[in-house]
Amino acid sequence: MKIDNVTTIKIKSLVTIISYLIGAIGFISVYRYINPLYSVAFVFLFILSMFFQYKQRFYIPKWSLNIFSVLLIAFNLYKINTEELITQIVQVILMIYAVKFLEEKRVRDYMQIYTLTLFLLAGMGLLSMNISFSVFLVIIVIMLSTSFVLLTFYSQEPDMELTKKTAVRIVLKSLYIPCLAIPLSVVMFVILPRTQYPIFDFLNRADKAKTGFTNKVRLGAVTNIQEDASIILRANMEKINNDDLYWRGIVLDFFDGVSWTSTDKNPVPQSSSIIASGKTIKQTIYLEPYADRYLFALDKPAFIYLRGIRRLDDLTFRMPSFIERRLRYDTLSIISDYLFESHVDTKIYLQVPEGISQDIKNLAKSIMKGEDRMQDISSLISFFNSGSFMYSLKNLPITRTPLDDFLFKNRYGNCEYFASACAVMLRLAGIPARLVGGYRGGYYNDVGRYYLVPQKNAHVWVEAFLENKGWVRLDPTPASIDNFALSKKVHFMFRMRLALDLINYYWYAFVINYNLDRQLGIVFAITKAVKRPDLKFNTKTIKHLKYAAMFIMISLLLFIIVKVIMKKRDVERLLLSQFYKRLDRYGYKKRESQGLEEFVEGIKDDNVKTKAWEFTRQFEELYYRDRKLNKDDIKRLKDIIKAI
To answer: What is the DSSP annotation of 105-145?
Structure first.
C-alpha cells in the first residue's frame, strides 16, 4: 500500500509473516526425530492454514479444533511408549502447533504459538544435543524477540500501518535484545557452577541407537555396518601408526557354522593388571549410542574410567545396560601383539561346529603340519594372503555352509569370512582361537588431535593362544589399510565431512561435556593471564578498580571452592611422595620425565615390582575415576607402601 507515495506495510502482516517463519523453523528443528506421518500431517495443515490466512474469509471453528486436540492427546496417551516418551510428546506438540495456525489468530493465539515454539525447541534439546540445537536456538531467539516487539504494537493498534523505513528500524531495534542476551547467556554458561548430574536427565530420551556389533555375529551381517558411513566414536589421543589402530570391543568364542556368539564371561576387578608389553596410550573416547553394551578402546585396554562398567576376563568392558546415549570416558591402552595369559579353557576355544565338512579338516591339515605352532600360524595367514582370496562386501556367500562356499567355491568375502575360516582351522589344528570384534583404523584430525571412526570401519580379527606367549593377534583379512584409513582415493565430500566434523567434536567436548573441572581450568588460566594495572587516580582508573574489585571477589570465592576440592589432590600427592621415597630406599629413583607406570615397569626386583604394580593399579583406579579418597582407601594404599 502507498500513502502519499510512501510504501507502507500493515503491522498485522508483519506479525503474520514472522509467525509463519517461526512455525516453519520450529518444524524443521524436530522433523528428523519424529514419525514421518506426523511430518506430512503438519505440512498439510500448515499449508492449509496459510491458505485460510490469505483468504481471511473462512476459519475452522475453535470448538472443533479443541476437540481434535483433545482426541489427539488421548490417542497418544493410549499408545504411549515410555522408551519413546519425548518423541511422542514432541509429536503431540507439533500437531497442536499446526492446530493453532489453523485458528483465527489474535494476540493470545500468537503468544501461544511462540510458547509452543519454545516447547518444540526444548524437545529437540532432549532428543539430540548436537550443534544444530544451538543454531536453531539462536535463530528462534532472534525471531521471537522481533515478534514480541511487533506484537506489542499490534496489540495496541491492529490496523497500524508502518512505512518501510519505520518497519526496518523497529526490527533492527528489536535485535538489541538477543544481541545482549546471547553473549550474556554464553558468559553465564561459562561461569555458573555446573554438575555432571543434570537435574532433568530423567527426561532425556535415549539417542537413537545406531547399528553396531552385538554379542551374536552372523556371517555376512557385518556388511550392513561396513556400508554405513555414520560415526561410531571419536578418540582424542596422539597420532599413532595406522597398523596399530585396532579398536577392541567384543570377543566371540562359540561358532555354530553360521553365527558366532559370546559365552558368559566372568567379571574381574578393574584393578587386575594385564600382562602385555608395549607403548601406553591414553584416550578420551566419545562413543555414539549403538545396539549393545560393549565399550570400545584401543588394542589392549588396561583401564576404562567410567562409573558402573564391568571388566570381563577376555579384556572386554561392558555397561550394565544398552548404550542409548552418547558416552564420554577415558581409557589407558597398551599397544601389543601379545596378551599373556597362563592358561585358557580349551573346551571353549577349541570348539568347532558339529558336522563340519571333511574338506575343511583336510585343508587345515594340509596347511598346518603340527610341528611348530608359530610356523603353522604363519602358513595359515600366508594362505589367506596369497592372492587366491579377495576382500569383498558384495554377493557374500550367505548359505547353510558359508565357510565351505567361501573356501572352495567363491573365494571372496569380508573380514567375517576370513576371520571365521582362520579361527576354525586353527581350532582344528589344536590351537585355541577366538574372534575379536571392533573397528579398524580411523581418520586422524590433526587440528582437533582426534581419530574419527565410522561404522564402515567395523572389523573382525582373530586371537590365537600359544603357550608361553598368550593370545596373539592375527588379521587374516587381506584388505589394505586404505580400506580403513584416509587415503588419496577418498572423495572430496568425505574429506569435507571430516573437516566439518571438527565443529561437532568441539561442540561435544567443550559444550556438552563442559563441567566444573573445565570451569576451574578457565579460572586458573584467567588468573595467570591477569597483569598488575598501572594505577593512576582518575575517573577512568576508578572505573577499572570497580571491575577489578568485582573480579577479585569472584576469584576469591572460586579460589576457596577450589582449595576445598584440591584437598583430595593433596592427599594423593602425599601418597605418591611416600611411594617414591619407599622405592628410593631400594635404589629406584623416578626421573621427572617418567610416568608412574613407566617408572614401575623399570623395577628389576620381582617382589618389589609386584607390590609396586599393586599400588599403581589401585591408585590409578581411584585417581582417574575422580573419586574422593576415604579413610579405608588411604589406609589400604599406605599398607601396600609399607609392604614394599
So the answer is: P-HHHHHHHHHHHHHHHHHHHHH--SHHHHHHHHHHHHHHH
pLDDT, one tens digit per residue, over 85-106 is 788 888 888 888 888 888 888 8
Distance CA 610, CA 626 (A): 25
Quote the domain boundaries for residue 490: 216-495
Q: Is the pTM for the entire model greater than 0.70?
A: no
pLDDT at 617: 85
| pLDDT (0 to 100) of residue 211 | 52
Question: In this predicted model, what pLDDT tens digit does every residue of 423-439 receive, in sequence order?
Answer: 999 999 999 999 999 99
Comparing 38-52, 209-223, 234-248, 471-485, the range with the smallest average pLDDT is: 209-223
Residue 522 to residue 190: CA distance in whole angstroms: 9
Q: Is the pLDDT of residue 210 over 50?
A: yes
Query: Do residues 487 and 549 both lie within one domain?
Result: no
Angstrom distance (rounded) from CA 297 to CA 331: 7
- 47 part of a folded domain: yes
Of 174, 203, 232, the residue at which a domain comes to its end is 203
Domain boundary among 495, 510, 535: 495
Q: Which residue has the cell 580400506?
A: 483
Instruction: Classify residue 34: in a domain, yes or no.
Output: yes
Count of alpha carbons within 13 angstroms of residue 107, beta-carbon side: 12
Residue 15 and residue 106 in one domain: yes
The beta strand positions in 376-493, using DSSP E, are 390-391, 412-413, 433-440, 443-445, 450-454, 458-466, 470-474
Q: Is residue 161 part of a domain?
A: yes
